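Many introductory courses stop at the sequence. We go one step further.
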Amino acid sequence: MQPETIEADYDRLIFPRFDETVALALGQDLVRRGLAGALPIVIDIRTADRVLFHAALPGAAPLNDLWVARKSATALLFQVPSLLVGLRNRAKNETLAKHGLDMADYADHGGAVPIRVAGTGVVACLTVSGLPQVEDHRLAVAALEDALASL
């Protein structure tokens, strides 16, 4: 994926509101998608200080939970999708260590997309882990697009 595509997708994903009810519906939609496709994924929706939704589908590994935490931390800190952070870092031949970030706590791989509310900014993050990073990212964006369309 090209950074411009990720940026354009992210620019469109601005919610009028986001709360626990929206998080639950978003999470349940991803569970349905995952089960229908037999996807071995972990789905996580969190704010900076609490988890709003978390599910591990059949076939997901405990390691996916660690990836979720690391990718979410990156997206929340940089306030852009974790895939975009990684693409930008690789284009500059840099790593997260340049920013003083420990790889045990942060990951710049795809799958975490910050959730923004108009007039407020980033309020949460949706993260998917278990597929190749671009597929994790695409699944998260598709679910966010549908959630936004339903509001």
